[in-house]
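User: Second chain of the day. Same drill as before.
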Amino acid sequence: MSAPRIGFMQGRLSPLVDGRIQAFPREHWREEFPAAKALGLGLMEWTMDQELIFANPLLRPEGRKEIGGLAEANGVTVASLTGDNFMQAPFWKAEATEREALLATAAFVLECCAGFGVRWVVVPLVDNGSVDSAEAAENLADGLEQLAPLLSADRVGIAFESDLGPQELARFMEGLDPALFGVNYDIGNSAALGFDHREEIAAYGARIVNVHVKDRLRGGTTVPLGQGAADLEGCAATLLEAGYAGNWILQTARAADGDHAGALARYRDMVLGWLQGA
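Assistant: Same format as last time:
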């Protein structure tokens, strides 16, 4: 087995933004590159919020240039992006005029990611973005049809994070081109929903292209790895047995004492142990 590709969610090496566990670290994003290098983490998953979205440096030419320089100088690759903006303002739940504006923004995000080398854009179909009506499902399908021409098998694709059950998600993915659309598997979210990881991976494991590593209480919030409902070690082993060879992104609980780098180092070592022991 090749060396596991363990990375982190942007923001996990910065102070919390407005008390939120996850948000684009607008004041500290530059500092995360050398911090990641110090921890030996060569992968970062970028974050995108709807608030001040066009101020995000990934969407600005000078910003992408600066990101590229920091990435090269510190040996960090930005291989994926979590589009929390899609969950915060889902185009599939918006009215016609607003929906077209949000779809235009989505297209711009995908174009910027493709140009920068971000391989997968995670679109969360959970929480506020949950596809919870026939109308939302229809709007999502229509929107994806519009966005599909911007996707490319060797440049950028969309990875869905979903709250659907195993068979439902498998059926949803069946209608989408596997070269362009995949699944972002969130270990903690699945545990919180009470799903069995073995059933999920058996149903759609071949479509999993990115993994978020976190732990959550059943029906509850994110907690430190090993303190929630997730069978983390067993899930890692099942994913590897199914042939998963992608990235493992630490989307873990924040440090209560503010030592976010120390917490991430501990989580990194825990995941490495599970993967090497599998």
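The chain has a mean pLDDT of 96.

User: Great, on to the next one.
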